[in-house]
Amino acid sequence: MQKKFKIMVIQGPNLNMLGVREPNLYGSMKLEDIHAQMKVVADQYGAEIEFFQSNFEGEIVDKIQECLGDSDGIIINPAAYSHTSVAIRDAISAVGLPTIEVHISNVYRREEFRQKSLISAVANGVIVGFGPVGYHLAMIGMLQIFDQIKAVLASQQNAQ
């Protein structure tokens, strides 16, 4: 039986306000709508997907740690914590799971302090500035990583 991969989507502070908060920067799409679209893609691929949002750094760290042994990859928008959280960076590094960082706005066109992410160095990839479609791009990236893992597992089984 083929392994069913699981993706954990972690959303940082204020993302629960999407659709209301600064629509000129973040668009009018609500977080629930983004998640519904991601679920469609996961279902088409045969992957499991789970969603988590918190405005609290420690809860995000806890959720990342819970991914160890439970999830196969993480898609994360750490939001404002991207620029300040060594704890989130260290948690991602500690679990060692494929991780894709997403930002809805183009942080490089914004304030200077937003242009440095502590998370990027431990992520497999970063998607910035595509609006809500960035989450779809992250799904494509994560599913590609899963395809590579499947290929390695298949070649290992064939070698035995």
Automatic annotation (TrEMBL):
<keyword id="KW-0812">Transmembrane</keyword>
<feature type="site" description="Transition state stabilizer">
    <location>
        <position position="21"/>
    </location>
</feature>
<dbReference type="InterPro" id="IPR001874">
    <property type="entry name" value="DHquinase_II"/>
</dbReference>
<protein>
    <recommendedName>
        <fullName>3-dehydroquinate dehydratase</fullName>
        <ecNumber>4.2.1.10</ecNumber>
    </recommendedName>
</protein>
<keyword id="KW-0057">Aromatic amino acid biosynthesis</keyword>
<feature type="binding site">
    <location>
        <position position="83"/>
    </location>
    <ligand>
        <name>substrate</name>
    </ligand>
</feature>
<comment type="pathway">
    <text>Metabolic intermediate biosynthesis; chorismate biosynthesis; chorismate from D-erythrose 4-phosphate and phosphoenolpyruvate: step 3/7.</text>
</comment>
<keyword id="KW-1133">Transmembrane helix</keyword>
<feature type="transmembrane region" description="Helical">
    <location>
        <begin position="118"/>
        <end position="138"/>
    </location>
</feature>
<feature type="binding site">
    <location>
        <position position="77"/>
    </location>
    <ligand>
        <name>substrate</name>
    </ligand>
</feature>
<comment type="function">
    <text>Catalyzes a trans-dehydration via an enolate intermediate.</text>
</comment>
<dbReference type="GO" id="GO:0003855">
    <property type="term" value="F:3-dehydroquinate dehydratase activity"/>
</dbReference>
<feature type="active site" description="Proton donor">
    <location>
        <position position="103"/>
    </location>
</feature>
<comment type="similarity">
    <text>Belongs to the type-II 3-dehydroquinase family.</text>
</comment>
<dbReference type="InterPro" id="IPR036441">
    <property type="entry name" value="DHquinase_II_sf"/>
</dbReference>
<feature type="active site" description="Proton acceptor">
    <location>
        <position position="26"/>
    </location>
</feature>
<feature type="binding site">
    <location>
        <begin position="104"/>
        <end position="105"/>
    </location>
    <ligand>
        <name>substrate</name>
    </ligand>
</feature>
<comment type="subunit">
    <text>Homododecamer.</text>
</comment>
<dbReference type="InterPro" id="IPR018509">
    <property type="entry name" value="DHquinase_II_CS"/>
</dbReference>
<keyword id="KW-0456">Lyase</keyword>
<feature type="binding site">
    <location>
        <position position="90"/>
    </location>
    <ligand>
        <name>substrate</name>
    </ligand>
</feature>
<keyword id="KW-0472">Membrane</keyword>
<dbReference type="Pfam" id="PF01220">
    <property type="entry name" value="DHquinase_II"/>
</dbReference>
<keyword id="KW-0028">Amino-acid biosynthesis</keyword>
<feature type="binding site">
    <location>
        <position position="114"/>
    </location>
    <ligand>
        <name>substrate</name>
    </ligand>
</feature>
